[in-house]
Write a structure and sequence with these properties.
Pathway: Protein biosynthesis; polypeptide chain elongation. Keywords: Cytoplasm, Elongation factor, Protein biosynthesis. With about 210 residues, this protein is mostly beta strands. The protein is about 10% helix and about 45% strand. It contains 2 helices and 16 strands. The strands form 3 sheets. It has a 6-stranded antiparallel sheet with strand order 1-6-2-3-4-5. A 5-stranded antiparallel sheet has the order 9-8-7-10-11. A 5-stranded antiparallel sheet has the order 14-13-12-15-16, with no helix packed on it. Strand 4 (about 60-65) and strand 5 (about 75-80) form a beta hairpin. The longest helix has 13 residues, at about 10-20. The two termini are about 40 Å apart.
């Protein structure tokens, strides 16, 4: 595993060296969310992939991507038959343990090996990590590239406007702060101290927790 204390540029260069042997050319139309591709010497994870077939003109593949090293998001459009460099990575379930100065530490439940994932790889998922949570890590030769959390988590509302008599679930949502510090919007009948189900993708409210 590459020491995570290396400067960011060296870490990225080392990742690219290791990925060179497994980069293969694929046509753009086969790319899907979660795939890792190389563009101009940088590694990107695909956030969304859409094949567009206009009534006239050439079919294209629209990709929204995030650069793995610094989180910068870009959009690119390719002809559906255009070749793109894709990196094949390994996806495995890992259990979240703790966070320290080296990053976020996870354990492979099959062999108990631990891996530290840099903060910029975890990105916006960080607030939703919970002890013993199972996530999917994408790695190559032990180098973490992307992380996927469960779609939903249960959190507590720590701050929101008080419930007012006459408000119903159909009224406009109100702002609230979750126990992980993330801001969200909840129905007016939800009060502080209530446990709720939240989507990890965007922090949106789903329902009151049933536990």
């Amino acid at each position: 595993m590459i020491p995570l204390s290396r400067p960011r540029g060296l870490w990225e260069a080392a990742v690219l060296v290791k990925l060179r042997s497994t980069l293969v050319k694929v046509i753009a139309s086969t790319l899907r969310k979660g795939n890792v591709v190389e563009k101009d010497g940088k590694l990107y994870v695909i956030l969304t992939a859409e094949n567009i077939h206009p009534g006239k003109g050439t079919p294209v593949t629209q990709l929204d991507m995030r650069r793995i090293t610094d989180g910068v998001k870009i959009s690119e459009r390719y002809r559906t038959t255009e070749q793109v460099e894709r990196a094949f990575v390994e996806d495995r379930d890992h259990t979240f343990l703790y966070q320290d100065g080296e990053g976020f530490h996870f354990m492979n439940p099959e062999n108990y090996e631990q891996i530290a994932v840099p903060e910029d790889v975890v990105g916006d998922a960080a607030p939703y990590l919970q002890e013993s949570m199972t996530v999917t890590l994408s790695t190559h030769n032990g180098v973490p590239l992307t992380i996927e959390l469960p779609q939903r988590v249960i959190l507590e509302i720590v701050e929101t406007e008080p419930v007012t008599k006459g408000q119903t679930a159909s009224s406009s949502y109100k702002p609230a702060i979750l126990s992980n510090g993330v801001k969200t919007s909840v129905p007016p009948h939800i009060s502080a101290g209530t446990r709720v189900v939240i989507m990890t993708a965007d922090g949106s409210y789903v329902e009151r927790a049933k536990d």
